[in-house]
């Protein structure tokens, strides 16, 4: 199903897509945003009128998504649609997104391996007061599995680069490492042996290993097992959530996307560090942290707050995905923080 920029109303295009647009850099946090050169829609820098919050992750366009009730928690949730929700084409690449509500815009961006559907319990609640966009980054979810290179730390990088348009950044159990000041940063040129023998052998080995890991990781039983290991309360690990992860992974290009993501990440670990990006940030930062996360514990949140004082921290008794495990608590934390931000004299972008 291919669409064009014309499928988005002008009000939406002027809100979200200017000369710097959403890209597909990835990170293991729950929020990602990036910007790109002028796109096919032909919007200029002046057209970028996006005034809201991105959570990693106001036109009058009506919602195309109706909410259904969550029996387990009494919350509204996004209904699961195997075919996806809305599509927009950027540089001949199909991008999937969900839009709901009216008011100042919030952009929700999923973490590694997930999709817009992972915000199923947050979109309906936030949409009562804001215009909520949830996008699938290129290569993830229902968006096209394009064979392009991807990067990381998108929400923080975008906020640092677009400081005059950013109101605040929210991170939920974000991965990423602080730099090691004692490590050497010098790079030597490749010699003939490295370039033509060792490097190809390394790449071949990586393809075999990462290919096997991807095949193993996309099995429904494996996905269910991993999710239940990082959700302290696994009640919300249901068939819909599992299908929202396994279905995109069946795309013929998904394995190649995974390979490029992982090799790019491994080769850029020294470049994309938390201290490097946070040192360029100027807007308020909110950390909503599941303290029982077996992957990224509360010590990471405390270190971020210590490094970047303009940080608010909300600690929750939850695992790696608090927005889906305890959505009612995450929604409250987001809405409380947003109400304080939007009461400021000038409203900027995240």
Automatic annotation (TrEMBL):
GO terms for molecular function: hydrolase activity. It holds the Pfam family Abhydrolase_6. Residues 106-332 form the AB hydrolase-1 domain. Signal peptide: none annotated. GO terms for cellular component: chloroplast. This is AB hydrolase-1 domain-containing protein.
